[in-house]
Design goal:
Length: 350
């Protein structure tokens, strides 16, 4: 029997929380006896009932993770703990840690000074404390070895799956109220490089085309992005959108564009490809590895090239066939992820 650190249940669902929730559901399906531990402040995640976590202690956030969680585990006989979102209790040893990326070291300027220092400390210490590290791409494995000095033998790569919440809404296609548009989705922060997309969009000679941007500013952790002020009616910031709305935006777009400067995996383009969207992505980070033949690529800082690629893909209606989409979804399947993850768990439980 193993336990899962379910601190992610206390947070609003973005990329890390989506990963942790999806993988947890898949692990529980394969190993129903799995125990999920969370603090009492776990009402934000709609999957709380499915995971049925045990509430431990009275603290919240990282204080709960660093103090109450390891004390509870020690009283329970030091079972194996699985940590899914970059950090783990530093005083505990029998544990697995998932590190998604090390962007905070690769480029600290993408973060506030306080956040960069905190993540630098906590993730490095967490990596040393864990028996085994799992990451989500070969790219991230190389980065972890490079920046954290972790031996490659300690790291396993387990790809993520296509978020089930996205697939669940895919059969219901809603009315398109925006007309022709390009779409992107991400937290609004410097690493996601929305400035390049906005500048490239303004170069397009297509007055009837809109640019829709879904995502919210993460003011608690990241710097406020210095996005250009846009008074034009054809650039629309949508803020945070729910899964049903998100799927509708994917399904009706002319082109999905994702110009992130650094990704450990990258859920948005995976979601877009799985829903059959023509997809243009950055040629940096893990994106070429993850998206493979199913997307087209561009230099995320070359504005002219981005604009040319957008115009080209829209004019020739680049799109993956249904057969290719099915192949892509088979590659990124949560059952496969859980089975590979459980192989690592089983080795440590022996």
């Amino acid at each position: 029997m193993f336990y899962v650190n379910s601190l992610f249940l206390t947070k609003r669902i973005t990329g890390l929380e989506r990963y942790a929730t999806e993988l947890s559901l898949a692990l529980k399906k394969n190993r129903p006896e799995t125990i999920f531990l969370s603090s009492k402040n776990n009402s934000n995640n709609c999957n709380k009932k499915k995971l049925n976590p045990t509430d431990v202690g009275n603290l919240r956030g990282y204080l709960w993770e660093q103090f109450e969680l390891p004390l509870y585990l020690k009283r329970a006989g030091n079972p194996l703990l699985v940590n899914l979102t970059n950090t783990c209790p530093l005083i505990y040893r029998n544990q697995i840690l998932v590190i998604h990326d090390v962007a905070f070291i690769h480029n600290p300027d993408w973060y506030s000074k306080k956040a960069a220092l905190f993540f630098n400390y906590i993730v490095k210490k967490s990596a040393k404390a864990a028996k085994k590290i799992i990451t989500v791409s070969e790219f991230s494995k190389k980065e972890i070895i490079k920046y954290l000095g972790i031996p490659k033998e300690k790291i396993e790569v387990v790809y993520s799956g296509v978020p089930q919440g996205i697939l669940n809404h895919s059969e219901r296609k809603l009315e398109n109220k925006y007309g022709d548009y390009i779409f992107t989705v991400s937290t609004l922060e410097p690493r996601k490089n929305l400035i390049s997309l906005i500048r490239a969009f303004k170069k397009l000679n297509n007055p009837g085309l809109k640019l829709l941007i879904a995502g919210e500013k993460n003011l608690l952790v990241f710097k406020t992005p210095e996005l250009e002020k846009n008074d034009e009616n054809n650039i629309i910031f949508l803020g945070y959108v729910d899964d049903e709305t998100l799927v509708n935006l994917y399904q009706n777009t002319c082109l999905f564009v994702y110009l992130s400067l650094y990704e450990g995996f990258g859920f948005p383009p995976v979601e877009a490809i799985a829903l059959g969207c023509p997809t243009l992505v950055s040629n940096r980070g893990s994106l070429p590895e993850v998206c493979g033949e199913f997307a087209e690529y561009t230099d995320p800082l070359n504005i002219d090239e981005i604009a040319q690629k957008i115009e080209s893909m829209i004019s020739r209606e680049f799109k993956n066939s249904m057969k290719k989409v099915e192949k892509f979804c088979e590659r990124y399947n949560w059952q496969n992820s859980a089975e590979r993850f459980l192989t690592v768990i089983n080795e440590l439980e022996k």
